[in-house]
Protein: Larval cuticle protein 9-like
Organism: Musca domestica
Amino acid sequence: MKFSIVLLACLFAVALANEEADVVKEFREVNKEDFKYGFELTNKIRAFQEGHLQDEKTWLVKGEYEFVTKDGKHIKVTYSADEYGYHPKVEHSH
């Protein structure tokens, strides 16, 4: 469940841009007990996430995504997720 929430947060950043963009960089590595993925688009959206199983039920995940809003603000969200929930830190600048 928590993994889904974090993944949706990254996809939300892409939806916010609401414009066409080409992929500049993309990678993914998915294994049974860990994963990594990331991408960067031409419209300055960037995301990275990695995680691993702490035990058979608990994923520890960390990542970040960033984008520029329609009014020119740069937003960067850095987060972690664990058995205690989703822990975001939001930074924004002009």
